[in-house]
Amino acid sequence: ETGVTQSPTHLIKTRGQQVTLRCSSQSGHNTVSWYQQALGQGPQFIFQYYREEENGRGNFPPRFSGLQFPNYSSELNVNALELDDSALYLCASSPPRTGSYNKQVFGPGTRLTVL
Amino acid sequence: KQEVTQIPAALSVPEGENLVLNCSFTDSAIYNLQWFRQDPGKGLTSLLLIQSSQREQTSGRLNASLDKSSGRSTLYIAASQPGDSATYLCAVLRSSGSRLTFGEGTQLTVNP
Q: Which of B43, B98, B104 is closest, CB to CB, to A107?
């Protein structure tokens, strides 16, 4: 069983640039959620994708956008990067919503540094 | 709005000690609660998941309890080891398929 993978591992960008982060979900999972974790803080929910549609969004501006593909992989795009966007970006996948068990499995994260 | 608080923020103990990490949440209408471990600069590893109908879960030296009515969960670590040093995060899921709300974590250091 392949777990959740993310690419790239690390990324350095300058303020104002755009970035795309990628996530491959675990086999059998159809839902992908993205979280931002600033240094020393807990992860904050950005948004979730289910059946290629955005299904819930946290308190993040529209310059944070995403996609989900038919194979359930996902991208997170951030435009007009700001210094405060520097963080660890975590992707989590979860299985179809059947039964009473719903567990999100996290990838290793992408460390984004904005200079 | 759900808020999750973890106490203490940091904890340093000698090897072999039993310890308790605390997590509280403001909205008791949760679907499940998870405890995660995070090593520096790494992703999250799920340790234990407790469904809202359950009171506790155990895995090896770890035991997590859930008291939904009081909005509290504890993670008990028995006979701590230096390899347990990490940040421990708790997170609650409001409903099936929704977002996780995390606490800010407890940074644990176990000294040899």
A: B43
The closest CB to that of A103, out of B46, B102, B104, belongs to B46
- Neighbour-count burial for A37-57, b at 16+ CB within 10 Å, e otherwise: beeeebbbbbbbbbeeeebee
Enter the DSSP assignment of A26: P
Q: How far is CA A17 from the centre of its chain?
A: 18
Distance CA B94, CA A41 (A): 20
Q: What is the DSSP letter of A52?
A: T
The length of chain A in residues reads: 115
CB contact under 8 A, A105 and B46: yes
CA gap A80, B94 in Å, rounded? 32
Q: What is the mean pLDDT of residues B23-34?
A: 93
- Which conformational region is residue B70 in: left (phi greater than 0), alpha (psi within -120 to 50 degrees), or beta? alpha
- Least confident range from A74-78, B22-26, B48-52: namely B48-52
Q: Please report the DSSP string for chain B in residue order.
A: ---EEEE-SEEEEETT--EEEEEEES----SEEEEEEE-TT--EEEEEEEETT-SEEEETTEEEEEETTTTEEEEEE-S--GGG-EEEEEEEESSTTS-EEE---EEEEEE-
Cα(A40)–Cα(A34) distance, rounded to whole angstroms? 18
SS3 A29: coil
